Amino acid sequence: MTRLGFLLARTLRAEAPLAALSAPQPDLLSALADRHVALIGNARALAKTAHGPAIDAADLVIRINRAPMPSAASHGTRTDWLALATRLGDADRARLDPARILWMSPKRKRLDWRSATSPGFYLHPLHDHRALAARLGAPPTTGALTIDLCLRAPLASLTLYGFDFFASLSLSGRRSAAQVPHDFGAEGEWVRALAASDPRLRLI
Question: In terms of pTM, does the model score above 0.85?
Fold first, then answer.
């Protein structure tokens, strides 16, 4: 696809040509097989911890959106995959340098050409977003979408760091829970129920 074709498909919300740029979901899930995965949320409380070495020891580290990393001691240093729902500036792209970008947002108009043509790019299907939104009763966060995706894979473990469901707010901004369209209470209950039923999932 040319850049002009991409821009046209994005403007017209033509899903098929955009989906053609994506790695197939089964291939993505296969890449997680038997791996210990660390998924890093952006809760402010994580900055007060010393989980960095444990994060870096994971087989695969996935971060979310602009992924602020105040220190290596709390957040680690690696970003293998980046789950995005926002455009990534050049400075953040260079800082994070992900090997694979996952576009999790249903808002295709935010998707940029550089991300969409990056190696291993993945576009999360709209029907998967709708299914999780129906389950939660609200638009899911990028973190919730990524948890849902990862647990479909035959991975060894999924450990969540920096997920307190907005109790300490987010390192990514100053908005309160009332200013964002998510139901953090429902997401917290959903994740805790998953952890109780799936021994691969651990919430730190």
Answer: yes
